[in-house]
Design brief:
The complex is a heterodimer of chains A (92) and B (250). Chain A has 92 residues and is of the alpha+beta class. Helices cover 26% and strands 25% of the residues of chain A. With 250 residues, chain B is α/β, with parallel strands linked by helices. Chain B has one domain: NAD(P)-binding Rossmann-like Domain (Rossmann fold), CATH 3.40.50.720. Helix content of chain B is 37%, strand content 18%. Chain B is built from nine helices and eight strands. Chain B starts with a helix and ends with a helix. The chains are: A alpha+beta (92), B alpha/beta (250).
Chain lengths: 92, 250
């Protein structure tokens, strides 16, 4: 299946604004992001914490709808989905 | 009542929203939390617009490394309190408004007294713990919070109306890690001016605010995008607030 990754801010700097991933049916959000991190240490450092879970401050959306809570990593993606990843910025 | 000088000074914007609108700005009290990259453009444009009372809060002094973006602080101000540096420039830009310099660290003890009597709180901070404190007080006192944040060429901005929109904790339940962030001054200018524009629209009661909309600026690609956000029904800060403030009036 094909999943589109839409990246914002720092993530966009690392992987570009839009990527498409060819993933196995039933791949969860965590799997898609691990796939991206396999090719980029910078992405892995920015997206994951030391325990290998998606950093808690990273905002995730599937087809424009925010996903949150503990089960967000295990949410299954479907063909044609758009997974958006946004790291809030902190400076002022 | 506007003076002859004020009628002349604000002539071009009175054409937009009338003397009644200008009176609204004149009678408004706005607190700007932070006199740094965001606080400087916000304060400058609220001052020239004629917002009657600006309270500028910052405990810090001007460092040379601030000067690439904190446009109210000049080379000669290095070592001076940011509130004093900003206050002097703002008063020179517009002598018809009141500038209150609050050189104090924002914490749980000081913050309530700094924001309680104001019409709007501008988040021009550089860290989330203080932002969460401002958000808590905005929700507690029912004062709108105008959020902005920057990093590098990126920025984000939204308007929080307690009880009506997602609050900062709904949008960002977890803070990003603290860092010494890279930044170019234009990013602070762009995001700060959107915040100032939101404050002015709110005070005038005109236009459409960034309610439940997080605007994301990508300066490297010159792209402005929007993410819809929504209230978290289990939010510790705002879930108990009435969904429609007008219900209180009925």
């Amino acid at each position: 299946m094909i999943v589109r990754i839409k990246a914002f801010a720092r993530f966009r700097e690392i992987i570009g604004s839009e990527n498409t991933l060819d993933l196995d049916e039933g791949t969860p959000v965590l799997g898609a992001l691990k796939n991206l991190s396999a090719g980029s240490k910078d992405f892995r450092d920015a997206c994951f914490d030391r325990e290998g879970t998606i950093a808690s401050h990273v905002v995730l959306m599937i087809n424009g709808k925010r996903i949150s809570g503990r089960d967000r990593e295990s949410m299954v993606l479907h063909d044609g989905d758009e997974l958006a990843i946004f790291p809030p910025v902190a400076g002022g | 009542m506007l003076s002859c000088d004020e009628l002349e000074r604000y002539h071009r914007q009175i054409m937009l929203f009338g003397e009644a609108g200008q009176e609204k700005l004149k009678s408004a009290r706005v607190v700007i939390a932070g006199a740094g990259g965001l606080g400087c453009p916000v304060a400058t444009y609220l001052a020239v617009a004629g917002v009657g009372h600006l309270r500028i809060i910052d405990h810090d002094t001007v460092d040379r490394s601030n000067l690439n973006r904190q446009i109210l602080h000049w080379d000669m101000d290095t070592g001076r309190a940011k509130t004093e540096s900003a206050g002097k420039k703002l008063q020179a830009i517009n002598p018809d408004i009141e500038i209150e310099e609050a050189r104090v660290r924002i914490n749980e003890e000081t913050a309530p007294g700094l924001v309680r009597d104001t019409d709007a709180i501008v988040d021009a901070m550089d860290n989330y713990p203080t932002r969460y404190l401002l958000n808590h007080l905005a929700c507690k006192f029912g004062i709108p919070l105008f959020h902005g944040a920057i990093r590098g060429f990126d920025g984000q901005v939204t308007t929080i109306i307690p009880g009506r929109t997602a609050c900062l904790s709904c949008i960002f339940p977890k803070a990003p890690p603290k860092e010494i962030f890279p930044v170019i001054g234009v990013t602070a200018g762009i995001i700060g001016l959107i915040q100032a524009n939101e404050v002015i629209k709110y005070l005038l009661g005109t236009g459409e605010l960034l309610e439940n909309r997080l605007l994301i600026w990508d300066g490297l690609h010159s792209i402005l995008e929007e993410i819809n956000v929504e209230r978290d029904q289990s939010c510790i800060e705002c879930s108990q607030l009435q969904s429609d403030p007008m219900e209180k009036v009925k």
